[in-house]
Amino acid sequence: MCNHRSGPRPAAARRRGLASVMALCLVASVNVASVHMASAHAAEPSATFALRQLVPEIALKAARAALEQCRSMGAQVTVVVADRSGAAQVLLRDRFAGQHTLEAARQKAWTAASFRLSTAALAAETEPGRPMAGLRSMPQVLAVAGGLLIEADGSVLGAIGVSGAPGGDADDRCASAGLRAIAEDIAF
Q1: Where are the domains of the chain?
Q2: pLDDT single digits (tens) 17-42
Q3: For domain 56-186, is the CATH number 3.40.50.300?
């Protein structure tokens, strides 16, 4: 303590000085603790997270566009639009689409959503003799063309599966028409 006067300071002055120092220390401690808590909070992972998902109206728009594309090619199909986990949001079956197309379209959408890969690409990766060939024997996996991911700005929003057109390539063309129909709607 620096004192220009000779002799001790009066007790009241010492108490005021001590109170001021303690108040400054308290403010500094609170500020340091706040900064520490803020940086610790930023480093901790959140207990929740948000996902983007298609609303039913946009899922239906994609399904209708895919169905119309197949109709223009003379094909009767079933279209399923699934959410990002593979659960069906929309199912459209044309009048004369075969009964098997209901399950095939659903499985294509589920497979694309689950593997985050088009079913045509998965088919190529799981051909006999390939390291991932065993995936084809998993329940619900349908590794044939006709299932595409619905993505926007790097986020998977869902998948679309089409079955009933003459060949997987035609199913893919119809599914692509569904994606094009909603491209502006899902752009972030």
Answers
A1: 1-49, 56-186
A2: 545 544 444 444 445 444 445 555 55
A3: no
